[in-house]
Amino acid sequence: MAKTEQGNGLHMRGTAEKLTDNGKGSDPEANGNVVVGQTEVDKYGFSGGAQQHSGENAEEVPIQVLREREAKWLEMLNSWDKWMAKKHKKVKERCQKGIPPSLRGRAWLFLTGGKVRREQNQGKFLELDNQPGDPKWVDIIERDLHRQFPFHEMFAARGGHGQQDLFRVLKAYTLHRPEEGYCQAQAPIAAVLLMHMPAEDAFWVLVQICEKYLPGYYSTGLEAIQLDGEILYALLRRVSPVAHRHLKKHKLEPILYMTEWFMCAFSRTLPWASVLRVWDMFLCEGVKILFRVGLVLLKCTLGSQEKLKACQGLYETMELLRAIQPQYIQESFLVHEVIELVVSEKDIEKEHNAQLRRWKESHGDLHCKSPPRMHGAKAIMAADPPSRQDLRQRPTIIVESPLAPKTDGVSADSGKQSRMTQEGKQTETILPPQETVNNPYLSPSDPSPLLKHMTIQGSKESLSSAEHDTYL
After folding, report:
1. Are 9 and 263 in contact (CB under 8 A)?
2. Looking at CB atoms within 10 Å, which of 165, 182, 224, 467 has the fewest?
3. What is the rounded end-to-end Cα distance, in angstroms, of the chain?
4. Whole-angstrom Cα distance, residue 317 to residue 332?
5. DSSP letter string over 253-266?
6. Is residue 303 within 8 Å of 232, Cβ to Cβ?
């Protein structure tokens, strides 16, 4: 058994195997030896496991609507600072509707401020990537790699491309924040990001999530998550008095059921379609979305006397919360309930201050001095206003956006000519005019590198979001 590091907050089973080991074992999920090529892969890249898309009760967006949304998002991304300053409400509404899969990675990069951090720290990730890292954290990270979404084709191959990039991102973070090191709950967060963007972008978005959205969550002692657990518990009293009384009666501490929910941003709890929709809203509006999701799940599961008949004790209640009924976590139902639930940043901050006073009375001062929490994309941008240069997009494929005005400088023909110079076939993407920068993305028609068994010392080329646009 792998020993759980102090302050990790997640207790995962697994052996202390290295990334470069052969990974022999009888359990394919535990050992990361799932052979994706032999099974059907869903549109998200999963070949099995709890996250596999079943198609039941799926919310399918008509192709014409999807194309219109893509054009609108391209227009927003091309003038991001103006939209965030003057039309933030519209940005929020479009995140609530769901970001188009083909642009989700880029949108997350902009929403979190990761794009600005990357531009302001050119070469920083490569510098960290080339350092060996602290052997203590390297060893623990290597042990955790095969546990992250082993049925996803990006992470199925032991020592494959996905696991390599996951190692790089997590190791780089331990060098970027040596006082924090590594926490197991960061691995699924980084893995979700890598499904949508290259390693360097995933690193900066991870930095923003850890520093701006969830500061203190991944520090030793779990003080920040304990405080948020008490905030969730206090808010539940208002949202669902029945559920609150039940949890109080059985002395069920919040940290027992909400730690993985919040620290992994529900990536290990919800169906994948719901995970993506929750992340779209979370990265736009901030931590209040995690609180709302948690409150909806508690209310739906424990919010009436009829529902409580099935869980008369602490054990039964925990079992019910570990396996939320499918109808409550289905995409359209959950998103609707989250949007309708009235819990604001002010509610959270008011309760945070109250819980902080109680904490100091019973525990003394916090040991972890984390920075103030930023409530979403608008607050992050306001705290560190970007320049136009920081927000400039740099694709090589140039195609005129249907929503953009005609210009003499760039045309669809020039985009076509640019595509012809690429090696192999590229997937055509609608992009606004006047964007001319190198695109590191691989062709979707190339043989997938995900099924190749590589070692950590192998190629460090990142997977691109373009590859995954084909099945996201």
Report:
1. yes
2. 224
3. 35
4. 25
5. -HHHHHHHHHHTTT
6. no
With 80 as the cut, is the pLDDT of residue 453 above it? Answer: no
Identify the bridge partners of residue 152 per DSSP, sorted by sequence position.
46
DSSP label at residue 48:
S
**Segment holding 85, helix H or strand E:** helix 80-86
Residues 391, 116 contacting (CB under 8 angstroms): yes
| Structure-token pair, residue 159 | 């020592």
* Higher-confidence position of 441 and 221: 221
Residues linked to residue 46 through DSSP beta bridges, in sequence order: 152
- Tokens 């992250």 correspond to 148
pLDDT of amino acid 35: 47
Answer whether 0.85 is exceeded by the pTM.
no
d(CA 241, CA 247) in angstroms, rounded, equals 10
Rounded CA gap, 58 and 333, in Å? Answer: 11
- How does pLDDT run across 227-236, given as a tens digit for each residue? 999 999 999 9
For residues 399-413, give the mean pLDDT. 53
Structure tokens at 331: 């995409």
Do the Cβ atoms of 159 and 454 come closer than 8 Å?
A: yes
For residue 434 the two structure tokens come to: 């006047």
Asked if the model's pLDDT at residue 337 lies above 70, the reply is yes
- H/E run at residue 149: none
152: helix, coil or strand? strand
User: Which ranges in 124-222 belong to alpha helices (H)?
Assistant: 124-129, 135-144, 161-176, 186-194, 199-208
> Which three-class secondary structure state does DSSP give residue 339?
helix
Beta-carbon count within 10 A of 372 CB: 10
CB-based burial, 410-439: b 16+ in 10 Å, e otherwise: beeeebeebbeeeeeebeebbbbbebbeeb
Angstrom distance (rounded) from CA 464 to CA 461: 9
Nearest alpha carbon to residue 79 among 333, 454, 410, 386: 386
Task: Return the H-helix or E-strand segment holding 107.
Answer: helix 104-112
- Residue 125 carries which side chain, given as an amino acid letter? F
And the tokens for 56? 């039941």
Provide Rg for the chain, Cα atoms: 22
pLDDT cut 70: percent of the chain above it: 74
C-beta neighbour count of 80 within 10 angstroms: 23
Over residues 355-360, the mean pLDDT reads: 90
Model confidence over 217-227: pLDDT tens digits? 998 888 899 99
- Looking at residue 13, its pLDDT comes to 30
User: How many other β-carbons are positioned within 10 Å of the β-carbon of residue 189?
Assistant: 26
User: 399 pLDDT band (50/70/90 cuts)?
Assistant: low
